[in-house]
Amino acid sequence: MTKQASFSELEYAAKKKQTRRDRFLAEIEAITPWAELERTITPFYPSSGGRGRPPIGLTRMLRMYVAQQCFGLSDEGVEDALYDSQAIRRFVGIDLAREAAPDATTLLKFRRLLEAHQLTESIFNTINAHLAEKGLLLREGTIVDATLIAAPPSTKNREGKRDEEMHQAKKGSQWHFGMKAHIGVDAKSGLVHTIIGTAANVSDITQAQALLHGDETDAFGDAAYQGIEKRAESQEVPVTWHVAMRPGKRKALPGTSLGDLLERIEHAKASIRAKVEHPFHVVKNLFRHRKTRYRGLAKNTAQLFSLFGFANLVLARRWLLEANTQGAS
Hints:
It is a single chain. This protein is of the alpha/beta class. It has 2 domains: 7-117, no CATH class; 138-328, Nucleotidyltransferase, domain 5. 47% of the residues lie in helices and 13% in strands. It is built from 14 helices and 6 strands. The protein has helices spanning 7-13, 20-31, 34-41, 58-71, 75-84, 86-92, 104-116, 119-133, 204-207, 247-251, 257-273, 277-286, 297-315, 317-328; strands at 141-150, 167-171, 174-186, 192-199, 218-221, 240-243. Strands 1, 2, 3, 4, 5 and 6 form a 6-stranded mixed sheet that branches. α5 packs across α6 (86-92) and α5 crosses α7. The relative contact order is 0.13.
C-alpha cells in the first residue's frame, strides 16, 4: 500500500524554486549505491526481534548518517536539521506529521556500530567497487599527499586535557595541533583509493609506500616526498616515483634550455598532482570537515573512510549521472 503524502510534503513538492541543498541531495540520492551499502551493513545491524523497542530501519539510519557526513553536522545537529529542513527530512524519509525523527542518541549508537565493526572502511571499499564497475578507477598511477586536520586544543573538557593521540606539527611558520589524513589517489580519475590517519607529527614520506595499491607503474608526490626512492620499503615495489623539486631549487633553475626543460617537467608533474587537491577540497570545504569531531585517532580515521568515500561519489557524479541517464533511456 502506497503511503499518502502529507500536506507539508505536497506543499514542498509544489514549490517552484529548487535550492542548492535540494539539488545536492538529489544528486547524492541518484549516485549512491544504496543497495550495496545496506548489504554491507545488514549482517551487523540489529534485527527487529528480541525485547524492547525495535530498531529504526537501516535505510533510514544510513541516510541520516550520509546527511551528517555531507553537511558536517554533529549528532545533535542532524537531529535539529531533520526538524528544520524539509529537504533533509525528505532525503532521510521522515514525515513529521506521522512520526518523530530519530534522535541524536540513536545516531550515536549507529556510528559506534560502524566503528566497532570497521564498517566505515567497508563503506569506502563498497563505494570504490561500485566506481570500479563503472570503469572510473584505473590503477595505473597513484598520487600521494597528506593534509592536516585540526583538533581542539582546549583542555576545557571532562578529562581536563587535550587529546593525547593528537600532536603538533609545523607547516611553514605556523604550528598546528591535530592529525593528518594521508591519501593515495588514482592519477587518472582523481578518486581516492587508500586512506591512512596519523598524528600530525608523522612525516608524509613514512606513509607513502603504504598509500600505493601495488599495481601502479608510476607514483607522484610533492617535495615532501623527496628521497622516497632511496627508502628501504621503496625497494620492494617496482614503481617509478615522480617527486616535485624543492621550491628553492626550482626557483634557482638557470634560464637556459636545460633550465626551461626542467621547468616544463616540473609543470607537467604539478598538473598531474593537482588532482589530489580535489578530494581534499570536497572533504574540507563542501563537507566542512576542517576539525576532528571525536577524541582519538581510531574514531577520526573511521570517519575519514566515510568522508572520502562520499567525496569519491561527489567527484564522480557527472559520470555516474550520465550513466544513470543512459541506463534509463
